[in-house]
Amino acid sequence: MKKEISFHNKFLTLRLEWIIGKYRFVPSAMLPFSPNHILTQKRRTEVRLQKSFVIKQNSKVSKD
Predict the structure, then answer these.
(1) CA distance readout (Å), 36 to 3, 8, 24, 39
(2) For FRET with 59, which of 12, 28, 42, 49 sits at 20 to 30 Å CA-CA?
(3) pLDDT tens sequence across 1-38
(4) In the chain, what is the greatest distance between 2 CA atoms, to the nearest angstrom?
(5) Domain limits at 9?
(6) Rounded Cα distance, 20 and 14, in Å
(7) How far apart, in whole angstroms, are the C-alpha atoms of residue 3 and residue 16?
(8) 3-state SS, residue 64
């Protein structure tokens, strides 16, 4: 029984290490639980809107 528990704990810690390792190279702004996340999302949306606006303008120009 004790062996089983230690195996389970080992598995959990490995899993945690893997999850942490996955996010280690990701800037904190990308993490959903980071305070910067909301700001980053807002900024991304703004950039996306600007890009689509520019594309619309370019397509208008090319039609003429």
Answers:
(1) 42, 34, 16, 5
(2) 42
(3) 566 666 667 777 767 666 666 655 555 545 555 555 55
(4) 78
(5) 2-63
(6) 10
(7) 20
(8) coil
d(CA 14, CA 22): 12
The confidence band for 52, taking pLDDT boundaries of 50, 70 and 90, is confident
- Write down the pTM of the prediction: 0.25
Domain total in the chain: 1
Per-residue CA distances from 62 to 1, 29, 48, 52, 54 (Å): 73, 37, 21, 15, 12
Average pLDDT over residues 48-62: 71
Place of tokens 């370019």: 58
Residue bearing tokens 């004790």: 2
